[in-house]
Amino acid sequence: MAGGPAPAGTAAEYVFGSAADKGSAVTVNSRHASPAVPELRQLLLDAKFSVPQPRPGGVSRAGLIEAARSSGCRIVGITAPAGYGKSTLLAEWARVEDRPVAWVSLDRFDDDPATLLTSLAAAYCRAGLGSAELVSDVAGRGVSVLGRAAPRLASEIRASAVPFVFMLDDLHEVRSPACHDVLGVVISAIPPGSQLTAGSRSEQPHLPRFLVSGDVLEFGVGDLALDAAGARQIFAQAQVSVTPELAAEVTERAEGWPAGLYLAAVIAKQSHGQARAVTGEDRYVADYLYREALTGQPKAVQRFLRRTAVLEQLCGPLCEAVLGSSAAAMQLRRIEARSLFLTPLDGQRQWYRYHALYREFLLGELRRTEPGIIMTLHQRAADWYESHGFPALALEHLLHTDDSDRSVRLTAELCLPTYMAGQLSTVQRWLAALGDANIARYPPLAVLACWEGVLSGDTAKAERWAAVVDAASFEGEPASGAASFDSVRAQLRAGMCASGPEQMVADAAFSLAQEPVWSPWRGEALWLLGEAYLLAGHLDKARDPLIEASAASAATGNADTIVICESELAWLAMERGDWQEAADRLAVALATIDENRIHDYVTSLLAFSGAARLSLHRGDPKEAHRQLTRAMRARLSATYVLPFVAVRLRLQLARMYLALAEPATARQLLREIDDIVSRRPALGTLIDEARDFRDVVASRAASRATGTLPLTPAELRLLPYLQTHLTAEKIAERLFVSKHTVKAELRAMYRKLGVSSRDDAVQRATAIGLLGG
Description:
Layout: H1 11-16, H2 40-49, H3 62-70, E1 75-79, H4 86-96, E2 101-105, H5 113-126, H6 134-139, H7 145-158, E3 165-169, H8 177-188, E4 195-200, H9 207-211, E5 216-219, H10 221-224, H11 228-237, H12 244-254, H13 258-270, H14 285-295, H15 299-308, E6 314-315, H16 316-323, H17 328-337, E7 342-344, E8 351-354, H18 356-369, H19 374-387, H20 391-398, H21 404-420, H22 424-434, H23 436-441, H24 443-456, H25 459-471, H26 485-496, H27 501-514, H28 522-536, H29 539-556, H30 559-576, H31 579-596, H32 605-617, H33 621-634, H34 643-659, H35 663-679, H36 685-699, H37 713-718, H38 728-735, H39 739-753, H40 758-767
Parallel strand pairs: 1-4, 1-5, 2-3, 3-4
Antiparallel strand pairs: 6-8, 7-8
Helix pairs in contact: 5-7, 5-8, 7-8, 11-12, 13-14, 16-17, 16-19, 19-20, 20-21, 21-22, 21-24, 24-25, 24-26, 26-27, 27-28, 28-29, 29-30, 30-31, 30-32, 31-32, 32-33, 32-34, 33-34, 34-35, 34-36, 35-36, 38-39
């Protein structure tokens, strides 16, 4: 897919952009930005990775902290509903800890395995623990999250020279099984002497498997509930006198719930010290206290609180835009002064957020009292964010409205940079929120949905959207930046190559004629034209469009097209015997892969096979094997929906393995080619090349019994899950196969790797480069 360079940082860095991200699609429009806005991205990053400041009058949890520190347990879980002081406990622990502390406050954007690992790596590095390259390695575009990024971060953590504490706040924001899979790999790497502690409202899935070894300490509601002494301390800080008897009564009604006791003190202060008034008649003290905290405010303040709860972060200009009023900054400061669960995010008191518990309550009140205005509030927030250069945040608000047309167009704008940032799950979440019907109504977005399936190897998705695109019509300029819908549809047809090289030439040439020199899609049209000429046997005609495609893609920052074009040109040079040109072009391709962290992109695999051939020519079989392994481990993403790459890659690999006297691997690759060709039989010269090579392999029948079979694509898909503690049945659920299939593949993998257990398989796969960096 065409697209400019994307940020490779945390979720907050992506959503809010970064001044260092040249060419990023997510930038600040300084012409419209208020003075507070440019500070937002750094402010949110600091808030995400910094230990929160203590709230005055908080009750110390020194006893629990000492118990955790002295327990010797590597894993500490703090699990309780909202308002029990989990974050407060973690923050107090961090302030008294003498070991380095890596802190990350998780949010809903971290519910994406790639983003989660990036946030964890960023927190680790900010604590002075990780190497400078760690975040880039983990956050690379297209990085295989479970197979490469998770073990890379785990390896760094396991090798830490100093003990540390890793603190994860709000772990309940991470819900997806894929996130818990990668988190489990990281947690398993915490070394002795170090600790990982997580606060969560819901059950922490990683805790049970460590309980068996006695390596877990867990605090729950009973541990976090306050007693009467704690209640008296809270009331004293609020300057409310309370007798021991009344403190005990309030504590009993609140069942020790810290947030309830805090609210009781706030309400008592507003009631001129009448602490007994907060006990009320309602046995559900939480609901009572919440309603008192809201209904005791002036009507204007109540309305302000309810309506601004749609915002995850608040500042004066944003609130004014959402509410259609003025003086919001002053109102925010007044609300903060009333202790209504409003937390400043910066020292200048410009940006705030509501305590999560209070925001949930306010949203519930908004839905109950003013349901008809909710979409309007989100619409206004989207307008403000988009006009100030934050389109991703604008989209998050639009997805709460019925403005599907605008949501679809903004998704079409953001799909490519988000995908290129390695946040595939975010793209999938947006597409799922829009729904297939809305995507199909905007064919340019259907093209992007199809390309996502093509490049990720999801054949069913690619075929489904290809049918939608093929039947669609669209007039106007696509939001994706292409010249026309017909142009990108022609590119998609060329890439999927279902009708042979002649039609592929026609489709690519049509698109090339449509796309102007400045178009981000022109490089892709040129690349596809060059590939079509190769399939048609016109090697000389293929060279010029491939060279031009590489240059055009460099101008637009489309790294993956640069890589595949330079790789194809290098292979052509080797066929001519021009090894110096081949070396130069492969150097460009490999450097581009490293710079953009796209080692697992399907478009990068031909560079590895080319580098293997060059190494073999230079008499370096060890380096040849290393490059072959890089291609073999990721080849499962090269499928019949991008058939010319899938077949050419396997042919190149098979030739190298035969040259290295490993015919068993060559035959396995030929079988995979047969499967691809059965679905895409019209692949021009590649069909002849495969037939001729099959004859060469058959002529070496004497060597048929030698060599070890490589892992199949299905086995490679299973391999990363061996690092987790998932059972065979759970792994089968992740992969949508039967438990019997998983067990059969496990036996085959053990045999091929020469091991007899999961742990040994992981160690062997890591040693030979099939897992990890």
